[in-house]
């Protein structure tokens, strides 16, 4: 029998971005809150201090800040008939753990979704007709609009001290910004940092081709900045250790640098680290959560009763915990019935490496996760006419070097030897004179791409691993080929000595060995009713109304943008409704 | 100050010392730290035969040449030996529960039951026995050209090892070798920051505020290590 803790008003599972947003919301409202975090406590000092943090081997390669796969991973297979194999070593995506979650070691690319991304099915049907959507593609509209989310995107950007240039300010297009973005209610809180050289070359070439390059929206602060909560950030120095590392300068927005400092001394909040939640408890009716069970630091099972449960772990963990707890009906790909695990999606990324002459000084190590980058948005979402192309979705294309870390970020032409004197010649010749350009593309959702519990493999507690059934589809191969071709045109315009593109061509399966992005989505999607979704527009469970599920697990299909802006916007939208309605009188916020 | 305010002449003046430093970087480092002046490293994990294999293989994967220090001189074998004695070597970073689907598609990633230590132990023994079977010499006793030929056979899977798949063993060896050449020197490789100097990576400097507005000009400063040493 687990030991039983004193009941609290709310328990939060996972103390990353959305867990922090919810902890603030609920403690502001006076609730007693316990936040349970599976990983260790982490803060800028001592965990991300210079110089120890700028250790490529420890953090960039071994991944000491990531979730140890030895304890828990996922299994992967390409189609429902296959036997899944465990994701044993890091490759395609990296999971966060510990306070701050993946918000510690993200890059800080802070995009919003495009308005049409949020009503994708209706939009595509209206513009191209119903037949344009393949039969097995299960995309659907978000039950919330861009306009409803906009104030919350804006607020989160202010919380993060985001840098950028508005492209559409209250409906007026502004030079230098993204002309395809939805209308912003305000400017970015801080101006962008100057573009790095690879971005300058990109912007010049893109302009020559008639595109409108703009600074990539970055949660890497460009100046001393105080956010709406009174938390202060310092300017980014382009150290080149952003993604996969914690920021030693208080520049990259993370829960630690934006929200947690004001929560530290709240008497109505207790954060328990190294607390691994294994189940959400339901009452006999199975329509009400009564708390959670977790394994504490000492390996003991503990029950934490609570009136409200917020599930704010990483996307894949959210889905696993719902399945292990028996919340909602698991998705069945043969019948299409059930919703938990449905519409798992991902991203498809193509990269073009440009190799310049030796007088072109790229200085690849001068970089941030997002600041200093330039992007174009012409070929993303539905910003261009897809009719002739026969696919849905697209990519943001950007000058994407996040550093020049030599183990992981070395670029040499594919024709160069992989070892020996020839390899040495190649790395010496190209290291300082090469640049990477990225097309980060959307992935749609499909009937046979989903998440469930693996029948064989267990975590270190003996609980089933999550099983991912996923592979690329024709739509995505076409999307990537089209995006990569546009990217190559830009790179050619820069007149490098040579260039090489890496992308997934038709017939190449999803490959867990190759880093794509950590933007896994879906499995606990939001929708208009319980038959098409796990949660309603306020991120509230249809089945268990005192359970709210945060994060990218809500996305009905993926976008060609980084997910943090959208998932934080959804969290703040939910927070507002909790504050104004739910907490006054707990109830189902949308009629089923 | 914007880039455009620098004249070509200024650019040469500012850049020249850096160019000289880079060009000289390799030679003095070698004369200061000749291989035989290093205290002899006693491997913790590898036995004598394995140590001979690793040194010989690293010497071919990153040979000493005019480009920069060789892998052996840079301490890569020491790096690998130390890594294998750390949790990494014991597979602590990996999900190691069975069953192991060794016939799974390669795109599903590593599916062997071996930790990195086991992969080296079995891989080296199998590689040496494959060499001996061919002409009764261990890998380390082959000529450089023969060693390169054999490594290519491992890389491409054109030799069958009695143990782990040749290409998997080779991939492990190559990736650890590169790590050792470019990781911070505190791990035993990249001695004198020789790997970083060869390519022009400034190491742990991690502050480029002074270069934000000088993009497109060669960054002039050499590397620093995490322990504060400079080069």
Report what the structure shows.
The complex is a heterodimer of chains A (592) and B (231). By secondary structure, chain A is an alpha/beta fold. Chain A is 21% helix and 18% strand. Chain A has helices at residues 17-28, 44-47, 56-61, 120-128, 146-160, 197-208, 255-258, 260-263, 315-325, 420-430, 474-493, 564-582; strands at residues 3-4, 8-13, 33-36, 74-77, 85-86, 168-169, 172-173, 214-215, 225-226, 232-233, 269-272, 276-282, 289-295, 301-311, 347-355, 374-376, 395-399, 434-442, 450-458, 464-469, 498-502, 547-549. In chain A, the strands form five sheets. In chain A, strands 1, 2, 3, 11, 12, 13, 14 and 22 form an eight-stranded mixed sheet that branches. In chain A, strands 8-16-17-18-15-21 form a six-stranded antiparallel sheet, covered by helices on one side. A four-stranded mixed sheet of chain A has the order 5-4-20-19, covered by helices on one side. The model of chain A has no long low-confidence stretch (mean pLDDT 98). Chain B has 231 residues and is mainly alpha-helical. Chain B contains seven helices and no strands. In chain B, helix 2 crosses helix 5 and helix 3 crosses helix 6 (166-182). Chain B is globular. Chain B starts with 7 loop residues before the first helix and ends in a 32-residue tail after the last helix. The model of chain B is unreliable at 1-36 (pLDDT under 50). At the A-B interface, helix 3, strand 5, helix 10 and strand 19 of A face helix 5, helix 6 and helix 7 of B.
